[in-house]
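Sample pair:
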Amino acid sequence: MRMLASLLSIAAQIAAGALLLALLVWLLQPKLLFRPFPVLIGNPAHWGMDYEDVWLTTADGERLHGWFVPAQPPFAQRRRARPQTLLFLHGNAGNVSHREASVAIFAELGLDVLIIDYRGYGQSGGRPSEAGLYQDADAAWHWLTHDRGIAPADIVVFGRSLGGAVAAALAARVRPGALIVESSFADLRAMAKRHYPVLARLVPLRYHFPTATRMGQVQAPVLVLHSPDDGVVPYDQGRALFAAANAPKRFVDLTGGHNEGFLDSQPHYQRALADFLDWRPPPP
């Protein structure tokens, strides 16, 4: 009897420890997923670009900060009969000031760029959440289409990593000229199972980001880019997004890791973007 009681006591302690760990992981999920950096380390003027500070108000009253960077001369002269404005939804870490290289690439493609910081990032107010990020993207879209009067068909929605999930959700609700998703995932549960296989089975997720489902709802040309070398978001996640997307669609292989793949893939990366923007698929 004593041995049985001892075993039951040990089992109870293990169960209590597992429950405590599960609770801790539940509480820490926002910090594990969202990694905002509050301090801007520069602005487009430091990069040699003209820009406009943009302040947006979301449907739930949060005030967001972003930049509108018009196509820079002489690159603005490269405009063609294609979407000319890009809404940039960045990844889960840092803020707008860490995206200099990407904004420069888009500028060379002759694109005006609106890049925003989600709530809780950079100078934007509030705290990040899945529902909140969707509202942040809605506010950016409203600013472009209503405040600036840009036609939806002239806007490319671009999302990298976590931003790809936000971009796909937005493009499923509106109808942009095109959607570009780079280094993103099919859904958050797939990522949790890959990186935290045991905890993913013990702890319910507070966030879902069902990117693949949203991709199937998008009615616009889609470009998916992903690197087989990506050690953060596995390559098969990008392939799953491509499989879920409706035609017309394209897939482009990158090289290099998760955060530097677009740079390691130059000039192939920039040519792939230009080819996609110039692409005119036949009507359905």
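The chain is about 40% helix and 15% strand.
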